[in-house]
Amino acid sequence: MTPAFADPQSPSRPLHVVAADDLETWLAAAPPALAVWVRDNAFTAGLGEVLPLPGAGGEMGGALIGFGTGKTRARTRFGLSRAVAALPAGDWHFEGLAPDHAAEAALGWLLAQYRFDRYKPASRILPGLKCPAGVDEARILAMAAGEYLTRDLINTPAQDMGPAELEAAFLSLADRFGAATQVVTGVALERDFPMVHAVGKGSDRAPRLMSLRWGQTGPSLTLVGKGVCFDTGGLNLKPSSGMQLMKKDMGGAATVMGLALMIMQLNLPIRLRVIVPAVENSVSGRSMRPKDILHSRKGLTVEVNDTDAEGRLVLGDALTWAAEENPELLISMATLTGAARVAVGPDLAPFYTDDEAMAAALANGAVAGADPVWRLPFHDAYESVIEPGIADLDNAPGFGFAGSITAALFLRRFADHPRYMHFDIYGHTPSDAPARPKGGAGQGARALLCALPEMLGL
């Protein structure tokens, strides 16, 4: 599906935004009969609370929506988007919404309209929204379109989203915007990207590495996304409970593809490259084994102490390839560690960087994009933990602590770039939340989009 605002020329009903602290003032200015209606329906203006208002001839004349208090708004992003589920079909427009909240409200409405309907048709027609005055419509539409793509890719089960299908989606995105592409498979993959090959060789669905290039002028940005289309854990087999969400293990790839869509749709003056290693980590006689030692594109050797720590292996080769061109900014995104979820939960996207200015820019971008992130450290004192002695690096040290940090340090060895940023995302919303239905979710992409002008001097 494609996000869209309502036609600005079409008839629409008003959705009056009223904060809890302002409710009595609003009622005092309303017609007496309307004030009685609101009081009789016990409307309190809680965040996202909707009350239909009577109109002429018994039709709905509009609706009230509560804006809650400052405290509830701080706790809940996109609270006004609850109206999408509460209102009937037809077009609506906000009234009484402060300009500094309009962009988040508009984005939240579009994100709340998302439905994953590939296997089950949508049950009803959802209400539309006219883009509020003063909002950058093109930017909001690009953000929503990127998120829709990310959600669709993550939500698709692995039976229909293996390496070949992810490649097809990648090439379709490139074709849409006239980007040049390259796909490495077979003998060339085994020779030039041996860790990608080692992870994917256990599956009957062949591994591959995709690259997209777009833009002729401006600073260079390279995005690398983990595309493990399903992760059984390999010979270190996951328990059944651990496999339940593993269709989302390509969430890093889905998120960088969503961010790339945003950049290209907005025609930002950037020379963009996107790299996605696409594999399935399966069990067979061809699977890599614990204690195997892998050679990498960079020349570093890696001892495999856990075949379930495969994401950092495929990213290692991809990051090496990316860094060979020395882009002005290099970013990786991956559903990499459970340790990150333990540290910050599912709603925050932890990120790593050694560049203070980039970290500050991203913090501002997270606020602007309603896309929370949290910085974790590349803690140099843990470098020795990822050095096993028998090889240059250990893909799963038995340290027992700081699993997200040691994984990030592992990736930094391959990126070897002063302006490198890594995201250890979850890529999934565990239960329905405003504008975020249960299922696949992009994290960090909108924050980055908003931060890129400062990071790249656009």
UniProtKB/TrEMBL annotation:
Q: Biological process GO terms, please?
A: proteolysis
**Would you tell me the protein name for this molecule?**
Leucyl aminopeptidase family protein
Please provide the record's keywords in A-Z order: Aminopeptidase, Hydrolase, Manganese, Protease
Q: Which GO terms describe its molecular function?
A: manganese ion binding; metalloaminopeptidase activity
| Organism of this sequence | Gemmobacter lutimaris
Q: Which Pfam families match?
A: Peptidase_M17, Peptidase_M17_N_1
Instruction: Give the organism's phylogenetic lineage.
Output: Bacteria, Pseudomonadati, Pseudomonadota, Alphaproteobacteria, Rhodobacterales
M17 aminopeptidase N-terminal domain ranges (all copies): 14-127
Gene3D superfamilies found in the cross-reference section:
Leucine Aminopeptidase, subunit E, domain 1, Zn peptidases
Keyword Membrane (UniProt): no
* Domain of life of the source: Bacteria
